[in-house]
Amino acid sequence: MEEAVARIIDSIPRGCSFDSHFVIARLVKEHSDQYLIFASGIATDSNKTLSVHGKIGQQIARLDGRVIDRMGDSWSENIHGSASKCASWRKR
Q1: Which of 20, 42, 44, 54 has CB 3.0 to 4.6 Å from 86, enough for a Cys bridge?
Q2: Distance between CA atoms of 10 and 77, rounded to whole angstroms?
Q3: pTM of the model
Q4: What's the structural domain count of the chain?
Q5: What is the CATH number of the domain that holds 11?
Q6: How far is residue 17's CA from residue 75's CA, in Å, rounded to a whole number?
Q7: Can you spell out the DSSP letters for the chain?
Q8: Cα separations (Å) of 33 from 4, 10, 25, 26, 69?
Q9: C-alpha span between 50 and 77 (Å, rounded)
Q10: From first to last of its 92 residues, what are the pLDDT tens digits of the chain?
Q11: Domain span at residue 32?
């Protein structure tokens, strides 16, 4: 999953902002098998999607300060089509 996340972020032009919803949507579209394998390995008693996406957000955040800079939060559409708050970054 880390490699897929890194590939998506590598494809973002320098200086552009993006959020975790964008990365997750690209994962589902371009790396669906890896996404499903990763999701199946996350054990949780409640909201599986929220837990999986939280873990993906943590993977994105690990790149903070190296290739991306945290900008705060954004309000964008999640994979369910609902608007919600998520972390945003700018590509260095």
Answers
A1: 20
A2: 22
A3: 0.92
A4: 1
A5: 1.10.10
A6: 13
A7: -HHHHHHHHHTSPTT-EEEHHHHHHHHHHH-HHHHHHHHHT---SS-HHHHHHHHHHHHHHTTBTTTEEEEEEEEEE-TTS-EEEEEEEEE-
A8: 11, 20, 13, 12, 28
A9: 14
A10: 999 999 999 999 999 999 999 999 999 999 999 999 999 999 888 899 999 999 999 999 999 888 999 999 999 999 999 999 999 999 99
A11: 2-91
Tokens of 4: 């897929």
CA terminus-to-terminus distance, the chain: 21
- For residue 35, how many other CB atoms are within 10 A of its CB? 19
Cβ(11)–Cβ(3) below 8 Å: no
Identity of the residue numbered 72: G
**Alpha carbon separation from 50 to 55, 69, 83 (Å, rounded):** 9, 23, 14
Residue 47's CB: how many other CB atoms inside 10 A? 10
